[in-house]
Write a structure and sequence with these properties.
Elongation Factor Tu (Ef-tu), domain 3, 6-stranded antiparallel β-sheet, 5 helices, globular, Riboflavin_synthase-like_b-brl, metal-binding, 2Fe-2S, iron, FNR_nucleotide-bd
Length: about 250
Amino acid sequence: MNTRRLTWRAARLVGSRAETDAARTLVFKIPGWPGHLPGQHVDVRLTADDGYSTQRSYSVASASDGDLVELTVQNVPGGEVSPYLAEVLEVGDEVEIRGPVGGWFVWRPTGVEPVLLVAGGSGIVPLMAMIRARRQAGSRTPFRLVYSVREPRQRFYADELRHAGPGDAGLDVAYLYTRSAPDGWPRAAGRLMAADLGAHGWPAGLAPDCYVCGPTGFVETAADILLALGHDPRKIRTERFGPTGG
């Protein structure tokens, strides 16, 4: 979307809300923001009074909305950036943001093929941007989300996904719990299996666009399952994250 050289921009925090006990959604106002595609990410830079600076990359959680950009940050204990963003940053404070970055792991609202989103933990963030962009565009492209988390209290965007409105018609959400499932949940707690994507994903014959995001091990497992189920490797897009110091 933006072909100009990326530059650092002042970003002022104008809102925030808790997603889980360890994650927070931050709403930044960034004058001159060029817009972004769902699935892209940004770099966030913090600079101390003594001139020391450090930066980390975070996926954008929101659909493009003028000069507002939402990020959802998982607090990484001992990290340099995420604890400050998740616990210290207050409305009115500023950081520097550069972006948007990335052009392959994106979904465009003009797409018509069915979409399968497979998220592990905080890997839901760029996929949620796709869901929100679909709603914003009034798209009728059918979406299915398979969201794997350790336990119910670690779900991001729980209320939004639970109370889907008219703009979310055609969006199906399936939760998988790896450590602790709610009482009476039809699936026992455990890791992602072929049966899960077979039951909640799209048949390979429909040639869906597949987006997989999460920790490296989760992404590799999900991609291998999709290939084993017959999905075209050219239609499987992955984004992974691992320990980066936060």
